[in-house]
Amino acid sequence: MDFLTGLRIGSSGMSAQRMRMNTISSNIANVNTTRTPEGGPYRRKDIVFEAMPDAKNFGEILSSQNEKFQRVQVSDILVDRKAPLLKYEPDHPDANEEGYVAYPNINMMEEMANMMQATRAYEANVAAVQATKNMALNALEIGR
């Protein structure tokens, strides 16, 4: 594997984890959102990753049959379809006829655990990119 391939793979992981972190942040920020433009409470979102062949163009895909390097890519953002949490608050402006308000079904502990996992994965990709960069710099030092 050459240096540029290592950098592309590491940067794709950082980009995917950044998008995951943005989605988790959105979930946490909307934990009490009871009204959205689509109607009803906010729905939790989750990221789906997909492994893609690491190639810049179609010609590289055809010519690199023996190399199985893959990069990560966000393939979809899923919207959670769990039933919302109902809380009895008859004075709330979004309360239904019985006085219940529908809140997003978001577990803060699960979101925080996902956030820590995304942070660690991002840091691992940063370390891999940094190691690749250091190897390239050391290789240049040999030629001096």
Outline of this structure?
This protein has 144 residues and is α+β, with helices and mostly antiparallel strands.
List its salient traits:
single chain, 144 residues, two-stranded antiparallel ribbon
Taking the sheet with the most strands, its summary is: 2 strands, antiparallel
Poorly predicted parts: none
> What would you report as the Rg, rounded to the nearest angstrom?
22 Å
Shape: elongated
Q: Could you tell me the mean pLDDT? A: 88
**Tally of individual helices:** 3
Helix content: 40-55%
Q: What separation lies between the terminal Cα atoms?
A: 23 Å
Structural class: alpha+beta
Topology as a string of helices (H) and strands (E): HEHEEEH
Indicate the proportion of strand residues.
Answer: 15-25%
